[in-house]
Specification:
The protein is an alpha/beta fold. The protein has eight helices and nine strands.
């Protein structure tokens, strides 16, 4: 074999070796990528199962509470033990938040023939610096629609986003028209309800120290229970964050309870997963 042919053969061999090596590296990378995908899916599935397990615990606790304390609902009750600040797990973290949807005024009460809901809504709107005409327009819209699914439904009907943003901390829209739970209502709403800053302040102080408001507490203060209020709730919102490995999910659930002549029941109204979520906050620019 001549020297030139030997050189060409050597180059061909090197090219073949390079291609082969490249294919081997590509296959190894694909295998690693495949393993990473499987690992990510497994972590995501585990995070979702952690969240669903926490949701099941909340449902069970609220169902037990129907038997042990159906008259009132507050966060000093045993069922509230399911609420969990963020804690570390061997391969992740999780937290459970439960919010009483009856801590707010239910805007779907406005179409009721009684004047109480509209009067309360007008007082609340005044406290929030919302124009009286705008408040009346909201009431007319809800009456026209019969009920709204969410406050955002009113934006599509021309209500200003700023107005809805002011209402949102104190007003909600429930599928079943509901009273306000004095055990969970916020301070501003309590003042609007009682129309007496002194009594509202005393009730809030006692609620913070004891964890709840009672009929006796109202009697001791010489206060009457305002209309459209009660001490219990049947509508709850649950937010669960669960992390496993590199996967992090948020589960948002709406829970409705029933305690009537047909019996006691706890129903999951809706469930939504937000996933995957970043496990770390983005770096500051």
């Amino acid at each position: 074999m001549r020297r030139g042919e030997a050189g060409v053969t050597l180059v061909n061999v090197l090219v073949v070796l390079a291609i082969t090596s490249g294919l081997v590296v590509l296959l190894l990378r694909q295998q690693e990528d495949g393993q990473d995908i499987v690992a990510r899916h497994a972590a995501l599935a585990q995070a979702e199962q952690i969240a669903l397990g926490a949701e099941a615990s909340v449902l069970a606790a609220l169902r037990r509470d129907l038997d042990t304390g159906p008259e009132e609902d507050h966060f000093a009750e045993p069922w509230a033990g399911v609420i969990q600040e963020e804690v570390a797990l061997p391969e992740g973290r999780f937290s459970v938040k439960v919010r009483d949807r009856q801590a707010k005024f239910d805007i779907n009460l406005l179409p009721a023939p009684a004047v109480g809901p509209q009067t309360l809504f007008q007082r609340l709107a005044t406290r929030l610096d919302i124009d009286a005409a705008e408040a009346r327009r909201i009431a007319e819209l809800v009456a026209l629609l019969g009920a709204v699914r969410d406050l955002s439904d009113l934006e599509a009907r021309g209500i200003a986003p700023d107005t809805l943003a002011r209402l949102a901390p104190h007003v909600t829209a429930l599928p079943v028209p509901s009273t306000i739970n004095l055990n969970t209502a916020d301070p501003l709403l309590m003042e609007v309800l009682f129309q007496n800053p002194g009594i509202a302040s005393q009730l809030l102080f006692r609620r913070r120290s004891q964890g709840f408001v009672s009929r006796k507490m109202l009697t001791d203060l010489g206060a009457l229970r305002p209309g459209l209020t009660g001490f219990g709730s049947h509508a709850w919102e649950v937010e669960i964050l669960a992390e496993s490995g590199a996967a992090r999910v948020r589960l948002l659930s709406l829970i409705q309870r029933r305690n009537d002549l047909e019996g006691k029941a706890v129903a999951l109204i809706s469930r939504r997963f937000d996933a995957p979520l970043p496990t770390e906050a983005p770096a500051e620019p």
